Amino acid sequence: MSDEITREFGGPDRGADRRDGTVRDGAVSGERRTDRGRRGADHDRVLEAFRLECGALGDAVTGLSEAEWNLPTRCAPWTVRELLGHVCVVIDWLPAMLDAPAPGAAEITAVEYYRPDDRFSPRTNGKRIALAQDRAAGPADDAALAEDFATTWRRVDRLCRAQPAGRTVRTRHGDAMLLSEFLLTRVVEVAVHGIDLADALGHEAWLTPAAGDAVTELLLGAEQTTAADKLEWNRPHFLRKATGREPLDEAEAAQIERLGLRWLALG
């Protein structure tokens, strides 16, 4: 299981979809998007999307039964409990990043963060799986697991809101980024894995408009979001299709081709 975005554009002809939530290496359809000229994500907008989406996810997992916590997810081998543990882990990288000295300048964007290197290797993936399982095994009971998530995201939200808009951070992979750009990748984690959790639980997706719009814009680029609206898909449906969680049928693939849509492929 990998939690990251693939590095290339995908479209209706981007290769076989993976239905287990893992990330494909991503066949290219259309030009590679580097976003070298992309301005940094709006600090306040990303913070608000993070806050709202984390709050919605926290509400959704509060009061789950033991049987619900143990349900399998499409992100094998994780259960609902372990997938939430993974979301806690990837959010909880931020406090240490903010404690560390800020790099002098941002070198990459959120899109470029997902370039191919060791972060997608089987070794790193194995560590990612183990960290999530360890995090899920830590709380004494199910209520404590939900509380761990709430405590984690609220701390991160508080710390990020105390930072100036131009704050830079260095990721565990060595990337120098604007905090707002890295936080955007965390919005992706909470939003897309929130859909995975909702589907595993048999619930309607709780994706918030703020997070749905932020992730869609990251996937497509701001210039293509209006064209995407012509699909007349709601945001959870679009994200399932764009991430390979649901395959495109022939008519959908043809419609996307007509609109000229190309997106980053999420796992």
Write a short abstract of this structure.
By secondary structure, the chain is mainly α. The protein is 51% helix and 6% strand.
- The CA-CA distance between the termini, in Å, is 9 Å
Class of secondary structure makeup: mainly alpha
Q: Main β-sheet: number of strands, strand sense, barrel status?
A: 2 strands, antiparallel
Order of helices and strands: EHHHHHHEEHHHHHE
Task: Give the beta-strand count.
Answer: 4
The percentage of residues in β strands lies in 5-15%
- Uncertain regions: pLDDT < 50 for 5+ in a row? 1-38
Count of alpha and pi helical runs: 11
User: What is the radius of gyration?
Assistant: 18 Å
Report helical residue fraction. 40-55%
In quaternary terms, these chains amount to single chain
- Neighbour order of strands in the largest sheet: 1-4
Which word captures the global form? globular
Mean pLDDT: 84
Description:
- With 267 residues, this protein is mainly α.
- It is built from eleven helices and four strands, in the order βααααααββαααααβ.
- Strand 2 and strand 3 (176-178) form a beta hairpin.
- Helix 3 (80-91) packs parallel to helix 6 (142-161) and helix 3 (80-91) packs antiparallel against helix 7 (179-201).
Identify the notable features of this structure and list them briefly:
single chain, 267 residues, mainly alpha, two-stranded antiparallel sheet, disordered N terminus
